[in-house]
Write a structure and sequence with these properties.
Layout lengths: L4 E12 L11 E12 L31 E13 L13 E13 L4 E12 L2 H9 L9 E13 L2 E14 L3 E12 L4 E10 L6 E9 L7
Antiparallel strand pairs: 1-2, 3-4, 3-10, 4-5, 5-6, 6-7, 7-8, 8-9, 9-10
Length: 225
Amino acid sequence: MNKRFDIAVQAGLTHYSNGRLRTPNIGVNLKGFGLKAVYNIKPLYEGGRDASHLPDRPTNTKVVIPKHENYFEFMVSGGLGFTGSFDKYETKDDIYYGAMGLSIDAALKYSHISKVGIGYDIFFDGSLVEEYEIIENQDIPFKDKMYSGIHISHEFLIHQFAVITQYGRTFKDIPGRGKSYLITGFRYDVSEKVFLKLFLKTPTKLIADFALFGVGFSLNSQKNK
């Protein structure tokens, strides 16, 4: 507001979960809103010395950032993981299922810190056997534990790290999961072409499906731009 008085507004959504690595996995969602006012009594001091000759509040420093040139990037990545029972209330610590994912992405880097993109996913979820057993009372073949979908994505870039958010739709209705899914995760660029990836897939009801850890390759990275 001015040199002495600050006002801040904040809102947030926090989700606590074990990623369905074990059951039960009930999960907790917390929504919050905050408003605060701060009055700064003292001017800026450095090392305990009187710095009254300096501005009494820190000032913004302007940095000239080189002009960004937009470009498209194509990536392929895959991951492995495991998951527990989808029953979020019953304890089934001795039951684990394999999970896999493969993604092909095309992204537009439209600023120094952001990308938007679209991609194609293939998933394997061994825990789907529970849903089909309820429906058909029998085990199911490997192919019925697989499904695919398309997604839109956004990435927030911080040096070699990226925060990934995606919304996708499967081509068929998945028993117990529906058609919509969300993916949140992190990527770490090991080199210009190779990256590591950790992400959590959930249906839109925010009940974890599985977490996957994997590796990916950028086919035409231009990270220096």
